[in-house]
Amino acid sequence: MSDEALVFAEHQAGKITRPTWEALAAGQRLAQDLGLRASAVILGESLSGLASELAAVDVSEILAVESGPLREYTADGYAEALRTLVSERKPRFVVFSHTYQVRDFAPKLAAALDRGFASDCLSYRKESGRMAFVRQVFQGKFNADLEFAGDPPYLVSFQAGSFREDSVRRGAKAAKITQVQVSLTPGKVRTKPGERFREARQAVDLTQAEIIVAVGRGIKSRENIELAKKLADALGAEIGASRPICDGGWLPMDRQIGSSGQTVAPKLYLALGISGAIQHQVGMKGSRTVVAINKDKEAPIFDVATYGVVGDLFEIVPPLIEEIKKAKGG
Ligand SMILES: Cc1cc2nc3c(=O)[nH]c(=O)nc-3n(C[C@H](O)[C@H](O)[C@H](O)COP(=O)(O)OP(=O)(O)OC[C@H]3O[C@@H](n4cnc5c(N)ncnc54)[C@H](O)[C@@H]3O)c2cc1C
Questions:
Q1: What CA–CA distances, in Å, run from 328 to 32, 315, 324?
Q2: Mutation test residue for ligand 1: of 246, 279, 295, 301, the one with most atoms within 8 Å of CB
Q3: For 209-230, what is the mean pLDDT?
């Protein structure tokens, strides 16, 4: 059995996706903690540019699996190509970021390899030689420790934000790139991808924002969003939201922050009336300074807040806007 932690690198529209860097950070950490070597695999066609980009990362090898049937993503194609590769190389771990694409094909890959898949994990722990992968159950009410039974390879995916993309170590020199041939008979790929569909066009890229004012259900009504917008204007901030606000159509979907929205890391994150459910936290816990205003002193948002204000946002925000305006001389 090899001593490898193999990271799956995802790409879309000719670019390595952001969660891939998080998966690489996870793979590097796992490799370091367990004395393994980290490597990465990328699938597709004409991959030399993307493989070179990945090779800048501190890993031992980049495996580029190029094949015509992999030109466009299909669950059949990816699962079969990775099954062939993983069966031959026998890595200890195959590490993924828990993206929509991974959700689509990784269970099929695990079934084809006859192995378990610890999906959507938050972290891992190594205790007395045993590895436990931490994952939420019952909609985030509890954390469960998962241990793999049986022989590797072990498949594990991590939730967005569990590892930071900026913690990926760069290599002193470029990693070796190895072209891997897999024979994929066209019959193995039974689906033909149609045009890519996107529910919400990402009109705003909150990942670039330096200050975010985020609103949650504590804002009470659609009309009151205006108050948060005034605060955002005063601060020169972007407006963001928890999921119920976007589900209710009070703000567009591209303003949603969290595990099924955007992952942000601004200098200042102001949370107004947000309870701080774990699905929200994973999208904002990388923020440098978090200020939370919430009526409930037990709200979980205070666990990740740098400054917590226990109180009614409708009493706190209007004078705050005035003070900010005064401080800015306006
Ligand atoms: C698979 C899955 C994915 C999910 N993805 C996301 C995601 O991407 N992003 C996300 O945000 N959620 C997500 N959720 C939902 C998440 O679990 C929570 O339900 C959600 O984040 C709660 O939103 P909230 O904090 O706005 O509302 P609530 O939990 O209802 O909290 C409202 C808060 O406002 C406070 N409050 C009320 N009135 C006031 C007042 N006047 N002044 C100050 N504070 C006040 C209350 O004390 C409370 O803490 C997901 C859930 C699942 C199951």
A1: 48, 21, 6
A2: 279
A3: 96
Which of 212, 242, 287, 310 gets mutated to test ligand 1 (max ligand atoms within 8 A of its CB)? 242
Decide if 209 contacts 304 (C-beta within 8 A).
no
Q: Which pLDDT score is estimated for 97?
A: 92
Q: 281 alpha carbon to ligand 1 midpoint, in Å?
A: 10
CATH numbers and ranges of domains, the chain:
4-188 (3.40.50.620), 206-327 (3.40.50.1220)
Distance 35 CA to ligand 1 centre (A): 40
Distance CA(79)–CA(43), nearest Å, equals 11
Cβ < 6 A, ligand 1 pocket: 139-140, 216-218, 242-244, 256-261, 273-275, 277, 279-280, 283, 293-296, 299, 312-314
The span from the CA of 247 to the CA of 41, in Å, is 36
Is residue 194 a contact partner of residue 293, using CB atoms and an 8 Å limit? no
Q: Report the DSSP beta bridge partners of residue 264.
A: none
DSSP string, 232-257: HHHHT-EEEE-HHHHHTTSS-GGGBB
pLDDT of 178-214, one tens digit each? 999 988 877 888 988 888 766 555 567 787 788 999 9
**Residue-wise pLDDT tens digits, 280-309:** 998 898 788 999 999 999 999 999 999 999
Q: Residues, the chain, total?
A: 330
pTM: 0.71
Distances (CA, A) of 77 to 45, 80, 235: 12, 5, 48
* Rounded Cα distance, 51 and 41, in Å: 9
